[in-house]
Design brief:
The protein has 295 residues and is mostly helical. It contains ten helices and four strands; from the N terminus they run ααβαβββααααααα. A four-stranded mixed beta sheet has the order 1-2-4-3, with helices on both faces.
Length: 295
């Protein structure tokens, strides 16, 4: 586990560096398309540095805002408060994550934050109302595992960055990209290179997100069992999450990988889609099989 934490920290640093480069190039080509000349690279550098810094320090607030989460209270959400208090002992974490709730019928949960000292665990009201105590314990332990393994930094930063890269790409296509018709010669070639880069960068960032999110779910499941000593709780919870067809309206493609289960439900096609190459999560069946092998 210590090795996994070290790798996650290293990956986070690499991703932040890649993001800084990608955003700088995107802003440069956008500014270039708006005829800003030599100021384009200056504006690009300033914007990318601010965006990278904000993504790192405010990723949790951004994710909570996107999902319209509210703070949990000991009065209304006593069950999860008590579960988290008990799990803190077995987890070995020194700082207790803040608890948040999303008002949604769908059963789901996620963790976010830049480190265990600034961590957040968020659950839906559907999860609170439909799961038994030991099932809910398994889910909270899974999210606590993401905190301890430093998955939260990796997933939060990547989610915010993917969203921003996609937004900037759209800005170019529907804004500056239309103003490129009068350019000639070398300028046209440079703009063409920028256009290809803008098309590929969101795809590249999304594939990076998929590669990161799938592997970390298996590790968090296994770590959850270490905390609870009860694989049956999480197994039972995953089975219920797999059959849940309720919609989570606050979910989007940028933050989907953060949830314990894919938040996009497609009825009869949900199970098939969860096993596809482009799914943000490994299939529930594969995760349950791995948990059963721990017994």
């Amino acid at each position: 586990m210590i090795e996994d934490v070290r790798k996650n920290k290293f990956k986070s640093g690499v991703i932040v560096a890649i993001f800084l480069l990608v955003v700088t190039l995107i802003i440069y080509f956008v500014c270039y398309a708006f005829d800003l000349g030599s100021m384009a690279i200056v504006i690009a550098l300033i914007f990318s540095i601010i965006a990278t810094w904000s993504s790192y320090y405010f990723s949790d607030k951004i994710v909570l805002s996107i999902n319209k989460a509210r703070p949990a209270t000991p009065q209304e959400d006593k069950k999860i408060v008590d579960i988290l208090d008990a799990l803190m002992v077995s987890s070995g974490l020194k700082t207790k994550p803040r608890l948040y709730v999303v008002d949604s019928l769908q059963m789901n949960a996620f963790a976010t934050g830049r480190n265990p000292e600034h961590a957040v665990i968020c659950v839906t009201t559907g999860l609170l109302n439909k799961l038994e105590y030991y099932e809910l314990e398994g889910v909270i332990a899974h999210e606590l595992a993401h905190v301890k393994n430093y998955d939260i930094l990796l997933s939060a930063v990547v989610s915010v960055m993917v969203g921003l890269v996609v937004m900037l790409s759209h800005m170019f296509f529907f804004g500056g990209g239309r103003r490129s018709g009068n350019r000639e010669g070398g300028n046209q070639i440079l703009l063409l290179i920028g256009l290809v880069f803008l098309i590929l960068s969101p795809i590249f960032m999304s594939l990076m997100q998929l590669a990161i999110s799938r592997k970390r779910e298996y590790l968090a499941d296994a770590t959850s069992v270490q905390f609870t000593r009860n694989p049956d709780g999480l197994i039972s919870a995953l089975r219920k999450l797999d059959t849940d067809t309720a919609e989570l309206t606050t979910a989007n493609q940028a933050t989907a990988s953060m949830y314990i289960a894919n938040p996009f439900k497609k009825g009869k096609n949900a199970k098939r889609d969860s096993s596809s190459f482009f799914s943000t999560h490994p299939s529930i069946a594969d995760r349950i099989k791995a948990l059963e092998n721990i017994r």
